[in-house]
């Protein structure tokens, strides 16, 4: 009994599957928060929700190389494990942190057979070849290892949430729990990649968010929504000197192109200072 209480009081760091299996064996109400590090308030909101809905919370930190379609993006991705662990420990709400090595996750060296359906090759899947195949592969592997009751994921990457929920809930007992996007005081969606931006970049991102709110507000005035969004996309590109992958209105239940604001979200992906940012409202 003392052993179990001691685990709950102190955050325990797990470095391999063996120690994970041994430590998690007594528990069956696990809340899982998968991350790639760069812990921020968005991650903490997932942890808080896990604490409310589950008895035990485990956070993983693993930068998965297989979901990066750009080697430069992988190389520049923020890494500060010591800082991440200090933040997690300070919350006093994390029971376990899993820090696997590549070999621990990809012990089975067989190539993944996961393929994204043509209907799902939209938004980021269209512009980041192989990205979501890598995401789904690692999420399946982590789910098999951790065996959680609930998995907590943010709505900022809504397409990722949609695809993971669609695949994992069919194959595993784990329930995917969507969590609201957390924003800074200027309404910029929190992201680990934001640490690669300077103050001017963040002000531009805040201004773009305001424009997106205005665009969505005015969509219903136009019969040809596709034409309206294309025009707005050109204006954003010219006004802010940015590259935009997409600006689209899609149904939030099936991600099909939508012609009405009800039950829809406005999705954007753009580059600021060579950093790719995504958002949806």
For this structure, the CATH topology of the largest domain is Rossmann fold
Structural domain count? 2
Q: How widely separated are the two ends?
A: 47 Å
Secondary-structure element series: HEHEHEHHEHHHEHEHHEEE
Spatial order of the strands in the main sheet? 1-4-3-2-5-6
Overall form: globular
Unreliable residue runs: 1-8
* CATH class category of the largest domain: Alpha Beta
CATH architecture title of the largest domain: 3-Layer(aba) Sandwich
Category by helix and strand content? alpha/beta
Rounded radius of gyration (Å): 20 Å
CATH H level, superfamily name of the largest domain? HUPs
Number of helices: 11
Q: Please outline the major beta sheet.
A: 6 strands, parallel
Task: Note the main attributes of this structure.
281 residues; 3-stranded antiparallel beta sheet; 2 domains; Rossmann fold; single chain; disordered N terminus
SSE diagram, text form:
Layout: H1 2-9, E1 12-14, H2 17-24, E2 30-35, H3 41-53, E3 56-61, H4 71-76, H5 81-91, E4 96-98, H6 102-105, H7 123-127, H8 131-146, E5 150-154, H9 158-171, E6 175-179, H10 199-218, H11 225-240, E7 243-251, E8 264-272, E9 275-280
Parallel strand pairs: 1-4, 2-3, 2-5, 3-4, 5-6
Antiparallel strand pairs: 7-8, 8-9
Description:
- The chain is α/β, with parallel strands linked by helices.
- The protein has two domains: 2-179, HUPs (Rossmann fold, 3-Layer(aba) Sandwich); 192-280, Pantoate-beta-alanine ligase, C-terminal domain (Pantoate--beta-alanine Ligase, Chain: A,domain 2).
- The protein is built from eleven helices and nine strands.
- The termini are far apart.
- The model is unreliable at 1-8 (pLDDT under 50).
């Amino acid at each position: 009994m003392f052993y179990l209480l001691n685990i709950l009081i102190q955050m325990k760091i797990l470095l391999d599957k063996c120690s994970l299996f041994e430590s998690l064996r007594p528990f069956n109400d696990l809340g899982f928060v998968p991350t790639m590090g760069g812990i921020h308030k968005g991650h903490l909101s997932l942890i808080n929700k896990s604490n409310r809905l589950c008895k035990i919370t485990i956070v993983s930190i693993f930068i998965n190389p297989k979901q990066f379609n750009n080697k430069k993006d992988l190389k520049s991705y923020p890494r500060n494990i010591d800082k991440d662990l200090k933040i997690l420990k300070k919350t006093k709400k994390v029971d376990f942190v899993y820090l696997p090595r590549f070999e621990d996750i990809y012990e089975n060296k067989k190539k993944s057979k996961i393929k994204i359906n043509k209907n799902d090759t939209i938004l980021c899947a269209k512009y980041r070849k192989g990205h979501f195949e890598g995401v789904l592969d690692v999420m399946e592997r982590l789910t098999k290892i951790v065996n959680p009751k609930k998995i907590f994921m943010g709505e900022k990457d809504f397409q990722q949430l949609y695809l993971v929920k669609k695949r994992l809930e069919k194959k595993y007992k784990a329930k995917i729990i969507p969590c609201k996007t957390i924003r800074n005081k200027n309404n910029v969606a929190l992201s680990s990649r934001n640490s690669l931006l300077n103050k001017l970049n963040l002000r531009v991102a805040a201004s773009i968010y305001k424009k997106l709110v205005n665009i969505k507000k005015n969509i219903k005035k136009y019969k040809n929504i596709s034409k309206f969004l294309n025009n707005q996309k050109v204006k954003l590109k010219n006004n802010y000197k940015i590259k935009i992958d997409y600006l689209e209105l899609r149904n939030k239940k099936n991600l099909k192109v939508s012609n009405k604001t009800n039950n829809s979200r406005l999705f954007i992906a753009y580059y600021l200072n060579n950093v790719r940012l995504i958002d949806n409202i």
